[in-house]
Design goal:
globular; five-stranded antiparallel β-sheet; 2 domains; alpha+beta; 6 helices; 461 residues; Jelly Rolls
């Protein structure tokens, strides 16, 4: 039998041998090389980031060149590691979405290792060609461009009531539009744009939903019955040069910070009737500097008549009133399908006190499921959540939405935690608004049809 000393000696020899093997030149050379900007980082940024991070876009800095990116390497590392960028706020536990922003684990690893190892540039010959953007248009050159008829001067201070610009299309035939892109002329002061198409003659087209009672927008506010709007005692009376027309038409597109162009799948499109007038509802926010805006909309026509007509609508509860200092106040809204409907997307919208959203579908057979949860709503990124597989909602399905608000001093974005807050157009007021995109099953594109309306329809298409 070997002595304990002999066994121990053997163990030491083996340990040394193993250690020597692990430190061999072959093993050392297999250590992953440090990524470079030109070969490894630029392709990731071009694929995931430069749509927003380029001159004239929503991103606060350009990420197109090494000189742009190198000073921000550590900030990119921290934002990627914390999951702040790319911005995506839906809970992965509920629903899958076609437009989800995100990086793969391999892409995250490249960015982190690059930033942690000196952020080297690499060889210029490895640099990929920069992505091309047509005159600022994300989707390429539009088939038609609709532009505000005047340069609009946004004042440096005060506030601006919603302005409405009417632009004739001069279309001599119906147009099927597969994509629409809104391009603000002065992005820093454009809070949102709502685009509607008003046919030459009124054309009632019932929507696919009816809504719970008691959610109307207060009289005098935009979208409600007319009434004298009181002068805000703190902010005074706002500028308004282009008042709302009597008819707006049907909702076809929109813009808010963080939104992407409306682009529908092949075979799907929205309808603009011949002779329609485009109406732009413009919401401007002053920021201390005068600005000139001339917003335009790019229309991309379908190459052939669609099989599915897309419709846009809204779910609103205008009766909200959030008490001063309330840190977690909730508001609900409900809509029910009048017929079989296919739901394509949801776009939740509040102002600066909004903190979270959740949407639940309650089916006629009693089943229910959370179809979208946004636990950390971000006013600066107004995302349209497009379902990877559009949701089939049989007649009688109820969509229940709940939004939470923080009207306390703990909310650093809160304009004034000392006041109760009601529905209003301006950012110091609040909204509970959801944009919806859907289609009605079994109805031919462009067809007018009749539904038995037990309550109010959505006033849309």
């Amino acid at each position: 039998m070997k002595s304990l000393f002999a066994i121990g000696s053997t163990a030491v020899i083996l340990s040394v041998a193993i250690a020597g093997a692990s430190g061999s030149p072959d093993q050392t050379s297999s250590k992953p090389a440090v990524p470079t900007f030109t070969k490894d980082v630029a392709p990731i940024l071009y694929k995931n980031c430069t749509t927003c991070h380029r001159p004239g876009e929503i991103g606060p800095m350009s990420l197109l060149t090494y000189d742009d990116v190198r000073p921000r390497a550590k900030d990119i590392r921290d934002k990627v590691a914390d999951g702040v960028m790319p911005p995506w706020h839906a809970d992965k536990a509920h629903g899958k979405f076609a437009n989800e922003r995100g990086l793969t684990d391999a892409e995250k690893s490249v960015l982190l290792r690059w930033a942690n190892n000196g952020a080297p540039k690499g060889d210029d010959k490895d640099m990929p060609a920069a992505p091309k953007y047509v005159d600022g248009w994300t989707l390429g050159q539009p088939d038609a461009v609709i532009e505000m008829p005047v340069d609009y001067k946004v004042p440096a201070d005060g506030f601006v009531e919603y302005e409405y610009f009417e632009i004739p299309t001069n279309f001599t035939e119906d147009k099927w539009v597969q994509a629409l892109e809104v391009r603000p002329g002065a992005r820093a002061v454009v809070h949102h744009v709502i685009v509607t198409a008003r046919p030459a003659k009124p054309e009632p087209r019932p929507g696919g939903f009816t809504f719970a009672k008691g959610m109307d927008i207060p009289r005098g506010q935009t979208g409600a019955q007319a009434a004298e709007k009181p002068v805000d005692p703190k902010h005074g009376k706002g500028q308004s040069l282009f008042p709302a027309p009597q008819r707006l038409g049907v909702f076809i597109s929109g813009f808010a910070p963080g939104t992407s162009p409306f682009r529908f799948d092949p075979g799907s499109a929205v309808l603009i009737r011949a002779g329609s007038t485009i109406v732009l509802q413009m919401h401007y926010t002053t920021n201390g500097k005068e600005a000139i805006d001339r917003t335009k909309i790019g229309l991309f026509f379908a190459k052939e008549p669609p099989q599915t007509e897309m419709r846009l609508g809204t779910l609103i509860n205008g009766q909200l009133k959030i008490p001063a200092g309330e840190q977690d106040y909730s508001i609900t809204a409900d809509m029910t399908t009048l017929t079989d409907v296919t739901l394509r997307s949801l776009l939740p919208h509040t102002h600066l006190r909004g903190k979270s959203w959740e949407y639940t579908a309650i089916y006629p057979d009693g089943r229910s499921e959370v179809i979208l949860s946004v636990p950390k709503y971000d006013f600066n990124w107004q995302t349209e959540y497009i379902f990877a597989q559009p949701l089939k909602l049989p007649k009688g399905t109820r969509i229940h939405a709940i939004a939470h608000y923080d009207n306390s001093a703990a909310n650093k974005s809160n304009p004034d935690p000392s006041v109760d807050v009601a529905w209003g157009d301006q950012t110091w007021e609040e909204m509970m608004f959801t944009g919806i995109v859907y289609s009605i099953d079994g109805v031919k594109p462009g067809e007018n049809y009749k539904l038995e309306l037990p309550g109010r329809g959505n006033g849309g298409q």
